Amino acid sequence: MKLKDMPSFIKTTDPNDILLNFMGNEAQNCLKASTIIFNTFHDLEHEVLDAISSIFPRNIYTIGALSMILGRDLPESQLKSTRSSLWKEDSKCL
């Protein structure tokens, strides 16, 4: 991966960065799991999901879009404050 492809909260060139190492360890832990859940849906990212399942044969489930599932039982006024992430949303790409 190129540095520009990394999420903004772990863009670093320091190989000892604590968040980079944490995320790397968590990615490695996924390889040990019997099941992986992705916050997407198959029709959107089927090529990537199929590639993952061909390399790592395990149960793969898609439950996306999680942000829409979380807000479906809330009144319209509360939907703006409901998010599936604690990170600030980058509105420049929308």
From TrEMBL:
GO terms for molecular function: quercetin 3-O-glucosyltransferase activity; quercetin 7-O-glucosyltransferase activity. Belongs to the UDP-glycosyltransferase family. This is UDP-glucuronosyl/UDP-glucosyltransferase. It comes from Macleaya cordata (Five-seeded plume-poppy). The lineage of its organism: Eukaryota, Viridiplantae, Streptophyta, Embryophyta, Tracheophyta.
